[in-house]
From TrEMBL:
Keyword terms: Ligase
Protein name: Acyl-CoA carboxylase subunit beta
Enzyme Commission numbers on file: 6.-.-.-
Domain CoA carboxyltransferase N-terminal: 9-267
Species this protein is from: Spirosoma soli
Length: 544
């Protein structure tokens, strides 16, 4: 973890470090000890043992569920650990139920996180490993997790489709596997089970007794011997967690190789400018300006950035670079005030940092199309307040310019990656490849803020609405009461601006230290390289 004495971003990093350590404890030390007493490894210990030493593991959704379900005791990390890692040298997705959190039961956010894991595997053609140890659906919230399109059942639909796509799925039953959840490992291509601790059945002993009056113990009903030697439901049994995980390593050691997308990669090089200087360049105050190019030059190899149309549309930086050797096209919001050269007869225009102007949107659309033409992955660096407003912008056609950029970005066939550095407001979030536009990874720095508009603007707007409503009812509000109401609204809205609020709901995949950005983007592009591009690039009707 990064320590920055007397630096403005230290409080952001301290919060990230503290929340990371707490969340990684899952259900707490007592429940971890209980797992060990049963002879079981925890979800994180299983992944540590399974994944290759010395290779990156990019965790997805660490903060999923953060601050949610408090009335149910909480659901840290959504009760499941997910990430992109390596097993026997093969990049893959790993999903491990955390039995220290409500016995690994599925909350609504658990279903969303599992579906996100499968989505990553499907769009990147990565094999996926399920380490199953779950009590099934969390019954008090079953109406929010069971029946809808993006609920529990979608998992098994994805199982079937991934198998048809040729994406390998290997499941290890390392604890409970109950009811509908029993289909997940058995719809995988290979299913393994741990003797003594692993069990799988559609209905447990209590439900069997209640339904048909049969008395049967869990081992006889759905234990390892029953399902390997008698039913043939499971392929192989192993005496303990480690031997089962070793078997998965042997499976992955023999997987054949497939065609790659062919994204260009040169010999990786570190930035020439010290990446740690990001902490001095990026202000803690989200209103203050800074030069985004200085950030970019501390993220890319050799600090080499080949700008595209640098003198035009300066509120967006567009250009080519390499990240850990991978060729990328970067679209980034410029946060300093720039001077736009006026057209004939028009004065020079001062353009505010973080705002997308018409000329910048026009430039970005063309650049995005060029990256698709060249098969270069796109990286979006967000610190955006939105599009320019006002009569001059409207008369200049800001809406059609923005629509052109959104159309080019939305129809891109090259993989897209988004990093929210600072603000991510309104339509700016959309144009800069927000979650709705399928970035392969959506990352946030601890300084990120995501909402329809800034906290100050939103609070004043909401205050005006509430005061008008009170006055319409004949109620008089004093200046003191108005200030108290403003503070209440501001505090509530600022909570929702937090990157951890976004991460809890999986609007972003991870909140990361800025110094992790290069490695995570590199792993994301490596993952995307497993999926050849087969869809032609077409933008449809472009507004001109």
């Amino acid at each position: 973890m990064t320590t920055l004495p007397n630096q403005p971003l230290q409080s952001f990093l301290d919060e990230l470090n503290q929340k990371t350590a707490q969340t990684q404890l899952g259900g707490g030390q007592k429940r971890i000890d209980d797992q060990h007493k049963k002879g079981k490894l925890t979800a994180r210990e299983r992944i540590d043992y399974l994944a290759d030493d010395g290779r990156p593991f990019v965790e997805i959704g660490l903060f999923a569920g953060d601050g949610m379900y408090n009335e149910h005791g909480g659901c840290p990390s959504a009760g499941v650990v997910v990430g992109i890692g390596y097993v026997s040298g093969r990049q893959c997705v790993i999903v491990a139920n955390d039995a220290t959190v409500k016995a690994g039961a599925w909350f609504p956010i658990t279903a969303k996180k599992n579906l996100r894991a499968q989505e990553i595997a499907m769009e990147n053609h990565l094999p996926i490993i399920y380490l199953v140890d779950s009590a099934g659906v969390y019954l008090p919230l079953q109406d929010e997790v069971f029946a809808d399109k993006e609920h529990f059942g979608r998992t098994f639909r994805n199982n079937a489709q991934m198998s048809a796509m040729g994406i390998l799925q290997v499941a290890a039953i390392m604890g409970s596997c109950v009811a509908g959840g029993a289909y997940l490992p058995i719809m995988s291509d290979e299913a393994l089970i741990v003797e003594g601790t692993g069990s799988i059945f559609l209905a447990g002993p209590y439900l069997v007794k209640a339904s048909i009056g049969e008395d049967v113990d869990a081992e006889t009903l759905g234990g390892a011997t029953t399902h390997t030697d008698i039913s043939g439901v499971v392929d192989n049994k192993y005496p303990d967690d480690r031997s089962c995980l070793d078997a998965i390593k042997r499976i992955f050691d023999k997987i054949g190789h497939r065609d790659l997308a062919g994204f260009d990669r040169a010999e990786p090089a570190l930035p020439a400018k010290n990446p740690a200087e990001i902490y001095q360049i990026l202000p803690a105050d989200r209103v203050k300006p800074y030069d985004m190019q200085e950030i970019v030059e501390r993220l890319v190899d050799n600090s080499a950035f080949d700008a595209y149309k640098p003198g035009y549309g300066q509120s967006l930086l567009c250009g080519y670079a390499r990240i850990d050797g991978w060729a990328v096209g970067i679209v980034a919001n410029q946060r300093k005030v720039v001077k736009a050269k006026g057209r004939t007869g028009q004065p020079v225009e001062m353009q505010m940092g973080g705002v997308i102007y018409g000329d910048a949107a026009d430039k970005a659309a063309r650049f995005i199309m060029n990256c698709n033409q060249k098969r270069i992955p796109l990286v979006f660096l967000q610190d955006v307040s939105g599009f320019m407003v006002g009569s001059r912008a409207e008369q200049g056609g800001i809406i059609k310019d923005g629509a052109k950029m959104v159309s080019a970005m939305a129809n891109s066939v090259v993989p897209k990656f988004t990093v929210v550095i600072g603000n991510s407001y309104g339509a700016g979030n959309y144009a800069m490849c927000g979650k709705a536009y399928d970035p392969r990874l959506m990352l946030a720095w601890p300084t990120a803020q995501m909402a329809v508009m800034s906290g100050a603007s939103a609070a004043k707007t909401l205050l005006q609405i509430q005061v008008a409503s009170l006055k319409a009812k004949g109620e008089i509000i004093t200046p003191e009461a108005e200030q108290a109401l403003l503070k209440k609204i501001t505090d509530q809205y600022n909570t929702q601006l937090s990157p951890y609020y976004a991460a809890a709901r999986l609007w972003v995949d991870a909140v990361i230290d800025p110094l992790q950005t290069r490695q995570i983007l590199s792993e994301g592009i490596a993952a995307a390289n497993h999926a050849p591009i087969t869809k032609p690039f077409s933008v449809g009707v472009i507004q001109t």
